[in-house]
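RETRY 2/3 - previous attempt timed out on the joint model. Re-submitting the same 824-residue input unchanged.
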Amino acid sequence: MASTRDKAGRPIVVVTGRGIVTSLGAGKTDNWAKLTAGQSGVRNITRFPTEGLKTRFAGTVDFVPVEPYSTPALSEQLAAMAAEEAISESGIGSKGDFPGPLFLAVPPIEIEWPQRRELAGASGANDAVTYQDVLRAAATGRFAAMHPRFQFISVADHLADMFGTKGSPISLSTACASGATAIQLGVEAIRRGETDAALCIGTDGSVNPESLIRFSLLSALSTSNDAPQGAARPFAKNRDGFVMAEGAGALVLESMEGALARGAKILGVLEGCGEMADAFHRTRSSPDGKPIIGCIRNALADAGLTPDDIDHVNPHGTGTPENDKMEALGMTAVFGERAKTIPVSSNKSMIGHTLSAAGAVEAVISLLTLDHQRIPPTINYQVPDPSIPLDVVPNVARDAKVTHVISNSFGFGGQNVSLVMGREPA
Amino acid sequence: MAEGTEATREAWITGIGIVSTLGEGPDAHWQGLSAGQPRADETTYAPYVIHQIAPLDLDKQIPKKGDQRQMEPWQRIGTYAAGLALDSAGLKGNAELLARTDMIVAAGGGERDVAVDGAILSGLPKAAQPEVYLNERLMSDLRPTLFLAQLSNLLAGNISIVHGVTGSSRTFMGEEAAGVDAVRIALSRIAAGQSEIALVGGGYNADRPDLIMLYEFGGFNLRAPFAPVWKRGPKGGFALGSLGAFLVLENREHAQKRGAKPLARLTKVLSDRSPRRQPGQAADVLRKMWAGLDLKPGRHALISGASGAEPAASEERALIAEHPGLPVRAPATYVGTAMEPQFAMNIALAALAVSRGNLFPPGDDSGVERAMEGPLTQAVVTSVGHWRGEGLALVEAP
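RETRY 2/3 succeeded.
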């Protein structure tokens, strides 16, 4: 019988369930078909009028109706769909009784403009509206439901109820690395022996006017309004920013021992996690790339692997001039000459940047890649950037032998997380 | 050491950084808690009561003006408190150690531009196309960098930039529960050998009408006149308080090797979730956690996380009544309610008490808080969040 401990003597953590929702569709089957066909889920925004905006498109999930829309409401619904799929594939526990904790990557939650307008209207103020007025409306008790809805804990709390996860559910943010951090926390909990299973979810349904404008004001978004589906151009010379997007990814993680004991099918191995914070700047990476390099190396060391063992990278690959340059620099430093030949494929070219969900969504896609031994392409790659000498799997999916994949996630605030996933227990 | 395979490792609290309306640092807090005269601000947001932060000389912990400008108050308070904690643990400026220091911040979201919100809300009813008006005003009126002062994980980001903590950086969100789980996970990682040293805590700015509004939806805010936590009547209420609280947790051997002294030992942190469908459920969760504690008769006290919000405060009060003679203190009477960093603040105050070997005087004459004579060696710290968030810690003399 295979050992259920890794080289460092820790419990091996395996994946037994995967769930995904993106702008391409709900579920693994639909997403995989479209990802490997090189389709884009990016479209013009119809959720709200976009006049006056510099960017008028996004990878919204429009086929999941929530009324009234709010970031927590849609994020919760997307997370629930992904979790349902992952738990169902895993066959773990019973309905509404998941035998482990919940780690949820979720966008920051706040009262949004529709609520603010409703309160201002209810305040009776007829000229200059101040917070004094909306406070008066809040005090009527008529808006009591807004309190739990806009608590940061509410999405995780509702999911904990829905799926019967155990203990205090953890909501977290490491900005655009959040989804990967959720998985890392699950891996660590299982390695500590606290639990045999963990439900790790990244979700994001935050395409609303102010969220979009915030990124826009930082000049982070693509403004290719004429051709939304061609707007996300990771690693291409004509890349002009990322495309905001929605989605969710969910993994059921288990100790290998627990999974084998219940006869579960092992779908992949979470071999290692690495992180390193960057103290250089709030939105930019350290110019020497050290934190990115350190993060990737930490993940490899945690997995007990060397750079030579990695045969595919699922990069952060946002399509911003800065990220892709720095990520390429980091990979070149870690992988040396091999950096030019390892397939590096950015899912964000098709689904956009799912922000808090991205690390989890891309972990699911990495696992599907291991499963199918086929690498989805980086689409919209027409103009190579000579300063980025990577094999980005341009425009067309490719069959390949993939044994170990590393998935990178980087975020504002100096957040860097890398996950190493493998096909089978070493 | 392999994780999860060896005996649990001991964790020390080797650093504390606290700021609140009582001032900055352990001494100011001890004096404030001992003076027996809680004060609050009843005028800024009348009729609602809050606790303002004492004036801080920001330059002492955030030397670059540029960094100060990039932050809003919640981040400045938190970054300041984190600096105090690093100073207290002897880590400040030690690049090698800071690069290995793990960080878990418990955070909400940042300030809004109140003037911009007000102007837009005033203009919207008159706009021919309100949605388009909203787009245009936000595009032109929002400061681009305000986003970075709002993002939950940017307190951690600022601590990395200002103080150089880069081992890892994680931000937990979720009000009181986030504060408990941040400390719990930091401790679990140290106990299991996944981490040697960690900075954990958060910052909170109560001087925000948008937050008072959020809690007023549910009628949680205390209205003037101010009263101590246990004397807020059947409707109860909390007074939001601006404060920052960070702890440096450290594996004992690691601390000993570098000659760091323990302020206290953090021997247990538990959290759980009660759906609170029935009255008493939150207290039940706490009662179960309490049952597992190894407490020394006559030498322990409770630092309660009670905020005054009901029914949470009454539930905890009922639990307290099951322990006759138990000395209780609810620091929220003095420092207010700060959601995410509240638990770290209360652990810091508990650590101060056990390190001094005695408890500060009662904060009211409600009968819940009673004088404690004897030596103090253990302090139980609770959290019963206003809506969710049950947790408990055990802090022991070194």
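Residues 13-110+150-422 of chain A form a domain with the Peroxisomal Thiolase; Chain A, domain 1 fold (CATH 3.40.47.10). Closing ticket.
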